[in-house]
Amino acid sequence: MGVAETKCSSGYGKPPWVFKGSALYQLHLVKAETARTFIPKEFRLVEAFGYTLGGFFLANYEESPAGAFDELVVIAGIVWNPPTSCAWAARVLVSSNDACDHGRKEVGLPSHVAKFSKRIEGIPRQQTSKFNRFLSMIGLDTASSTPNGGMDVQVTEINGPRAINICEINLPTFGPGFKLDKGMGPAIKMSLPSFSGRTMHNPNLLKYSCNIECRVRTMQPAKVSGPRQAPKHDTEPLGHHNCQSADSSNGKLLDNGQNLSISVMLSKPILALEFSCLKMHVEAPITVSHCSESSCRNSLGVS
Questions:
Q1: Shortest CA distance to 196 belongs to which of 36, 283, 86, 58?
Q2: How far apart, in whole angstroms, are the C-alpha atoms of residue 230 and residue 93?
Q3: What is the pLDDT of residues 5-52, one digit of tens each?
Q4: Whose CB has fewer CB within 10 Å in the chain, the N or C terminal residue?
């Protein structure tokens, strides 16, 4: 397949685009039949015994071309790209309109705007030490501010005037969005190659790389739960999010995509990596294969 450089968005400036913050990269065993619903037919899925390697990337960027924002990348699985392999994103949820627009148009990602609601959970009072109970008696209770608590992150996708709960992620310790000990884990450098495209906003097949520098450590996998009933105010129109979903006119198709993405999130976790002191350089995508109007319409299910 031929390869050509793509044009870049002026709003983000010249690539590579730099993102700084922290992240959780969690790998799951995903059913191959679920992953195939997202991946173009020309790719061969890396699988064994009916499963592929997917999961999610949950990040909090303190600095980026779009400013500070949160991101959840749902990874459907891994496809062959001899002599290596590349990840394929099933859905990308971001708390920034600019990041959504750039991801769709320039990187070919299935990006959607979302709200990330975070709640810190301290150690339950019954689990505190006798010394902490003594401090509580004299008015110096420290249990509520302990650094050993967890954090719940509720992700709500904004679909036009509606807000739809996607999942809730329970981090066992302070995760994305919190300052971590810079001495935690070894410093590493790695590259995460990925394919993208075949979307309504960018029908061509693209390839891009995320070059990462960070400190990494293994951690207990985060617990993921499915959608829960949204509070009343979460279903009200949210006019400040103007990056509308291309699928909003086809509720049935959108619901299917959401449900399959949730299936990936709820699949069995096998490894969780915490990235602190994260610095990620995203290279400009290259076009691997151009899509003619007729073939693109067929591959995207447009009649």
A1: 86
A2: 18
A3: 444 445 788 999 999 999 999 999 999 999 999 999 889 999 999 999
A4: C
259: tokens are 């449900």
Q: State which amino acid sits at residue 209.
A: S
Alpha-carbon span 122 to 289, nearest angstrom: 50
DSSP 68-121: SEEEEEEEEEEEEETTEEEEEEEEEEES-HHHHHHHHHTS---EEEEEEEEEEE
Distance, in Å, from the CA atom of 118 to the CA atom of 205, rounded to the nearest integer, reads 35
- From the list 68, 69, 114, the residue with the least C-alpha distance to 91 is 114
Please measure the distance between the N-terminal and C-terminal CA atoms of the chain and give it in whole angstroms.
26
For residue range 166-176, list pLDDT tens digits in order: 999 999 865 55
Report how far residue 160's alpha carbon sits from residue 241's, in angstroms, rounded to the nearest whole number: 8
19: three-class secondary structure by DSSP:
strand
CA distance 280 to 211: 6
Degrees to nearest 5, angle at CA 268 with 83 and 85: 10
As for how many domains the chain has, the answer is 1
Residues of the chain with pLDDT under 50: 1-9, 135, 138-147, 178-182, 230-242, 244-254, 302-303
Q: Which domain holds residue 178?
A: 17-122+146-227+253-290
| CATH number of the domain to which 211 belongs | 2.40.400.10
Is 299 among the domain residues?
no
How far is residue 30's CA from residue 33's CA, in Å, rounded to a whole number?
Answer: 9
In a domain, 1, yes or no: no
Residues 197 and 97: their CA atoms lie apart, in Å, by 19
Report if residue 240 sits inside a domain: no
Residue at 31 is within a domain: yes
